[in-house]
């Protein structure tokens, strides 16, 4: 079966994707910053599904570490067919004049530059095989800016533009590119945004049945199962009670 490389696999969409692809007997390269979580996930997936899992602990923001780690893996693991650029975060919710530059750097370095560093390392492997699929985790925030979302929204707008650019650049090589853009999804996303304030995070989803990580993983998996001549370029997914980044119908 195919090798699937998933960044940010320790929680949320990344972990759900790892579980979904493992269920279908695909071998996995999982990356993240939390080594203990990666090792736990590796053990769990190998025992449950009989697949092979290679955990790689690194921060996608560190360019040279990304390059060195990926270059050093055994050749058989470089036969990646699907790259899921999931590592990302939102940090803070402030007006531009009150925003934290540390938060800005964390979002831009992870959501934009980290995605580029990993993609640049992996794309030559896909080209060598003459096929492959890159899934970039965008957001509806990439096309619909909301109050105090400024830099996060900008980072996801960049993911949208990068995805379109990748699609053009990789057109001659038979490599698919899909930008998957979820709306409100209850993962660790809001807990991270609000620096561990779980009550504040729960308020985001008050009166809603938000998407789950598994919902998004199901959609990602579906995109990778289409015939070779079919490519979904851009896909937006929201809960039923959310029509856009700012229109909700809460109970």
Automatic annotation (TrEMBL):
Source organism superkingdom: Bacteria
GO MF annotations, alphabetized: oxidoreductase activity, acting on the CH-OH group of donors, NAD or NADP as acceptor
InterPro entries the record matches: NAD(P)-bd_dom_sf, Sc_DH/Rdtase_CS, SDR_fam
Keywords (A to Z) from UniProt: Oxidoreductase
Matches recorded under PROSITE patterns: ADH_SHORT
Matching Pfam families: adh_short
Family stated for the protein in its record: Belongs to the short-chain dehydrogenases/reductases (SDR) family.
The protein's name in its UniProt record: NADP-dependent 3-hydroxy acid dehydrogenase YdfG
